[in-house]
Specification:
about 110 residues, 5-stranded mixed β-barrel, OB fold (Dihydrolipoamide Acetyltransferase, E2P), mainly beta
Length: about 110
């Protein structure tokens, strides 16, 4: 019954979003496609997925870039969640671009 009471109380407040205002990520305006990227560029991005081998970062393109765990710090990283978390804003450096396979390799080192 307490759960139903809570639900009824919340339904009395239509349109209220308790999460607060979301902050919009500001991507690099000059980068529109993967072919606009160059090795060595430093770009802002947002972590979208963590895996055992690295993290995928949204750069504002159709393709996400990958930061391999070896490129996250100057020390050994067992799990990428030691360094990064989902939705974290990061500054990354482009280390390699494979246009044919549409893959972008990124690094947090020297970024």
């Amino acid at each position: 019954m307490p759960t139903l009471t809570d639900i009824l109380n919340e339904l009395k407040k239509p349109g209220l979003d308790i999460r607060g205002a979301a902050k919009a990520m500001q991507f690099e305006d000059s980068i529109k496609t993967i072919s606009d990227l160059r090795t060595g560029m430093k770009l802002p991005g947002k972590v979208t997925n963590l895996t055992k081998f690295g993290a995928f970062v949204d750069l504002g393109l159709k393709e996400n870039g990958l930061i391999h765990k070896s490129q996250m710090a100057d020390r050994y990283i067992e799990d990428p969640s030691e360094v990064l978390h989902l939705d974290q804003e990061v500054l990354v450096r482009v280390t390699d671009i494979d246009l044919e396979r549409k893959r972008i390799q990124l690094s947090l080192k020297e970024a």
